[in-house]
Amino acid sequence: MAIEVKRTTCNRDCPDACGILATVEDGRVVALRGDPEHPVTRGSLCSRTSRVFERQYADDRILTPLVRASLNDPFNEASWDEALDLVAGRLMDIREASGAAAILHYRCGGSLGLLTEVPDLFFARFGPVTTKRGDVCGGAGEAAQEADFGVSDSSDLDQVSCAKTLILWGKNCAISSPHMLAVVRDARKNGAYVVLVDPVKNQTSVMVDRFVQPRPGGDLALAMAVAGVLFREGWDDPDASSWCEGLPSYREVVMSRTVQSWCHDADVTVDDAVELARRLGCQRPATILVGWGLQRRLHGAATVRSIDALGLVTGNVGVPGAGVSFYFRRRRAFEVSCLSGPPAPRTVREALLGADVLDAVDPPIRAVCVTAGNPVAMLPDSDRVARALRSRELVVVSDAFLTDTAQCAHVVFPTRTMLEADDLVGAYGHSYLSACVPVVPAQGQARSDLEIAQGLAQRVGLGVEFAGTHRQWKQKLVGPRLLAAGVTLEELEAGAVRNPFAPLVVFEGRQFPTLSGKARLMQSVPSTARVFDTEYPLCLMALSTHMRQGSQWALRPDGHAEVRVHPDASAGIPDGGIARLSSRLASLDVRVVHDVGQRSDVAILPKGGWISDGQCANRLIAARLTDDGDGAAYYDEQVRLEPE
Ligand SMILES: Nc1nc2c(c(=O)[nH]1)N[C@H]1C(S)=C(S)[C@@H](COP(=O)(O)OP(=O)(O)OC[C@H]3O[C@@H](n4cnc5c(=O)[nH]c(N)nc54)[C@H](O)[C@@H]3O)O[C@H]1N2
Ligand SMILES: Nc1nc2c(c(=O)[nH]1)N[C@H]1C(S)=C(S)[C@@H](COP(=O)(O)OP(=O)(O)OC[C@H]3O[C@@H](n4cnc5c(=O)[nH]c(N)nc54)[C@H](O)[C@@H]3O)O[C@H]1N2
Ligand code: SF4
Ligand SMILES: [Mo]
User: Fold this and answer.
1) What domain count does the chain have?
2) Can you give the residue range of the structural domain that contains 201?
3) Within this chain, do residues 125 and 150 fall inside the same structural domain, yes or no?
4) Are 643 and 580 in contact (CB under 8 A)?
5) Is 260 helix (H, G, I), strand (E, B) or coil?
6) Which helix (H) or strand (E) segment is 4 a member of?
7) Confidence of residue 332 (pLDDT cuts 50, 70, 90)
8) What's the pLDDT tens digit per position in 366-377?
9) Tell me: the pLDDT tens digits for 419-443?
10) What is the pLDDT of residue 644?
């Protein structure tokens, strides 16, 4: 029996980008574990990925191209030539008759491998076609940090371990970036005081020194309260105006109300605000790790700006052990210019995809091609997204599974999985770069997104431009800059390499890439008043769980989705009872789980459920934009529970 251990990288949309060691027995993956030599992975994988090889060999994996003339027909297996000829021909006809803007290419985060972006280049060169704008994942937070600091970037993770105060502001590391938890533990061992701010009592809350539980969306008021205490007590940095623009007017906004009144809007105690202010101002350096959840709200960008401001006025930026960290600029090291083509003639807003596709005119959108995304399950107002897709002439989906989105397709291209990927990844939760190397050959007829783009390119006269093996494309992406810094593809394939261009301390010397070189403080605050909705009293929070990565599960969920609520919020439905969870948009049958740790104004549901499993949270969630960055306000939907 031939047993080999092969090294690759997890390419999922996860901050950790783990190093993987795969045990391959007679050509089949039988076990996966974390690479002990990867400085962040430290030998462990999350439960989802350690079992991902079960999905690799699952019966429901798509292994041949699927084609059907109409959505009422069953899919027929087709050869690649048939499927590619059909799609290339239809796309050329549509371009000829209506212009390339009548085609939408939508790509999301199913894989973070850079070569998953080759279809973007194909559609830009073929068209350019209509694409998406904004980012439902982190659009608001990135826009906020760009407004404040010039760019959104972070200091090295090692800096976290030398912080004296560590605030996990809406960040459930235990679930969403499990390897960050080890860093938090190290910081705590080194004496850091760790605070979690989250409306949800989650798995991370038991691992911190203090847990602050504001109302959902109450963070903006909480940050104002903390700033109020800082100014009142003189715990702000006396030199802050030398690195901040707009300090006097920011201070005026903060002081326009009392700390008590801000705390009332946040639904926290004054003591919570005082403790946060004391730690930030007096126990420096302090690092704030800003989570993604809190910015998926109507005021998401303003909220992140209010948190950035706390770091700025206390001097917790640009020095070791301090910072307001939201994102690591993962792509910067690579030569990604080879992936960009001419700009799109038109964009649709990702958060409003359903409505924007249905409403598009001059020309209307006739065809939609989807790469590495499951927009029907993952974008808000799922029913409308499905309706928008189902009413197009041609929908083409590249995926390894028959997702809710693939079920709206005329053609499905079967793609490679993570264990078959041949690609490059830069993490968005730390500073390491690494390579995906196939640990087994692609199963069946599965092809990578690069190979699919090449198949289409050949048929539309762009074959030469897209030619090249995966390794040749990877070499192009490594590029001269990384090579000059001593990083080769071979090295990346042998294990993770620290991005040589990533700063150890971002904005060192408190210099910011803005016009003035100073950071900019927010100058106004939207209303923070609580609004009570008596008809729909619960705030729906459809959050990451350990079971799923986006809409990709480890084990197929069975039965009803579980909604977690405080017993007082259960509308009399017993623990374990079946109920109807309704928003103003739709209803879902759910199993109710009582949890006394939760606030009585929230209902917590898993994110990533499928319509076809009766578990799709996004059917309940209206499509609304965040205040900046064209993000999606997923967590500002009100719902109610009723007996079935
Ligand atoms: N297991 C698992 N891991 C994942 C994913 C997954 O689906 N499953 N998804 C991945 C993706 S796509 C991303 S973008 C990243 C990040 O994925 P996210 O799931 O966004 O991770 P967090 O940053 O932990 O943000 C979630 C936390 O934000 C909190 N939150 C929500 N609203 C508020 C609020 O108003 N105030 C405060 N203070 N907190 C709030 C939630 O209660 C929750 O604890 O992780 C990735 N990791
Ligand atoms: N209610 C609610 N909805 C949310 C969120 C939330 O917190 N709450 N979070 C949002 C966030 S942060 C994000 S990032 C989005 C994620 O939304 P998506 O990126 O659409 O979701 P995923 O399920 O991660 O990935 C989509 C598909 O990509 C496929 N895939 C994996 N690898 C590859 C590949 O190499 N090539 C191709 N072609 N396909 C591949 C998978 O099989 C999967 O079906 O969802 C958002 N939706
Ligand atoms: S999903 Fe995240 S935590 Fe899990 S193995 Fe992949 S990178 Fe690591
Ligand atoms: Mo995301």
Assistant:
1) 3
2) 139-326
3) no
4) yes
5) helix
6) strand 3-9
7) confident
8) 999 999 999 999
9) 999 999 999 999 999 999 999 999 9
10) 85
Q: Based on the domain organization, do 355 and 322 belong to the same domain?
A: no
> What per-residue confidence (pLDDT) applies to 1?
74
9 lines ligand 3 (CB under 6 A): no
Q: Are residue 152 and residue 262 in the same domain, yes or no?
A: yes
**Domain end (from 279, 295, 326):** 326
Q: Which ligand 3 atom minimizes the distance to the CA of 20?
A: 5
169 and 97 co-located in one domain: no
| Mutation pick for ligand 3 pocket among 45, 433, 549 (CB with most ligand atoms within 8 Å) | 45
Distance CA 387, CA 384 (A): 5
46 close to ligand 3 (CB < 6 Angstrom): yes
- Do 112 and 163 share a structural domain? no
- Assess whether the C-beta atom of 372 lies below 6 angstroms from ligand 2: yes
Rounded to 10 degrees, the C-alpha dihedral 83/84/85/91 comes to 110
Last residue of a domain, one of 295, 326, 357: 326
Residues 111 and 156 in one domain: no
Q: Are residues 230 and 241 in the same domain?
A: yes
Domain identity same for 189 and 261 = yes
- Name all residues whose Cβ lies below 6 A of ligand 1: 13-15, 109, 137, 169-172, 175-177, 197-200, 202, 216-217, 219, 291-294, 297, 541, 543-544, 546, 548-550, 607-608, 635
Q: Which among 102, 129, 118 is positioned nearest to 455, based on CA atoms?
A: 118
Going by CA atoms, what residue is nearest to atom 19 of ligand 2?
109
DSSP 10-27: --SSSTT--EEEEEEETT
Please give the number of the atom of ligand 3 that sits closest to the Cα of 179.
3
